[in-house]
Amino acid sequence: MIFLADVPPPIHGMSTINLAILQLVKEKNIKINFINTTPKRFIFLYGTKLWSIAKILYFPIVMAYLIYSLFLNHDKKIYRPINGGIGQVFDICYLFLPRILGYKIYIHHHSFNYITNKKKSFSCLNTLIKKKVIHIVLSEEMNRILREVYLIDEKNVITISNIVFFEENFKIQSNLSKIIKNSFMNQNNGIVIGHMSNLCIEKGVGIFIKICEKLNNENFNFSAYLAGPCKDLKTRQLIKDALEKNKNMKYLSSVYGENKKNYFSNLDVFIFPSIYKNEAEPLVIYEAAQYGSIIIGSEIGCMKEVIKSLNGLSYPISDQNKDKYILRICNDIIEMANKNWGISRSSRITDFYTLRSLKKCSLDVLLEDFTDV
Length: 373
Hints:
Blueprint: E1 2-5, H1 13-27, E2 33-36, H2 50-70, E3 77-81, H3 88-100, E4 104-108, H4 113-116, H5 120-129, E5 133-137, H6 140-150, E6 157-159, H7 170-174, H8 176-182, E7 191-196, H9 205-217, E8 222-227, H10 233-245, E9 249-251, H11 257-265, E10 269-272, H12 283-289, E11 294-297, H13 303-309, E12 313-314, H14 322-339, H15 345-371
Parallel strand pairs: 1-2, 1-3, 3-4, 4-5, 5-6, 7-8, 7-10, 8-9, 10-11, 11-12
Helix pairs in contact: 2-3, 3-5, 9-10, 9-14
């Protein structure tokens, strides 16, 4: 099959899942022609306005590889995670010829942007490939809305949650007592809250900072840790100003490997108040949940459904109710401290892996379909 996808670097949710699926396909010994649609030579431009230009310049090279592969491939299957916005113009070009040649097309949806708001670009793409396609979505709600908005047959849609790509981590479970001991909440030294993302206003860093300000004004005992890269100059200044005003806050920049594991294992509450229009099912929520953190977030994309499944708390955010949202979250955190929710950390970790096991069967079905030549 042809595997046409972005893989890291750069690291973001979609590229991480693409790589995970690519590795699973290789483990199944499925013969693939892999075409990386990431312009590697221009990685240094990622996160800037020039990144889009780099992708446009790289497009003819990808098309050349694709056309070559289409005539060499024998099982006539192609896997393509599609873009969330204007990049779907690329996807239409990529999938037009495979459709003409009778390929079975697997589209992986990683954005809610064109699902909740019907877009002409995806309507065009859907019309082009409608007859011989499998749509892979991230949640049951995403499944339902996609089918209703674009009149897609139920048999052509499969739900595969991102949680299935988290491997059983026996180290987390065996070190559970140590994780609970390290939790500041259990030492009565205050709650540890955190936010991690590609830090920007759309991902919720501004709201997180205001939550910290409100807790600080309430003389609440807590520590807050921001983590993740930040390329936006306005957001950098916002973080710098917040750190000067609030001594309970720390900025750790990007964390990887053991540092990332330590970050999540020491959090009591993970807050992800995203308002990003393309948000669907952020991996970072699961990364925090597998260490037993209480998840608090917004309800954009799949997040309401995901956070509910993890026994967390979610509320809608709009420009009109941001202050109300911040107050509500602060009240929740203060209440958690009074109830000492840390004692249920072990059950939250167990629930995470139980949920993963329940959802994994749909991934097995997809991999079987990949191998069915």
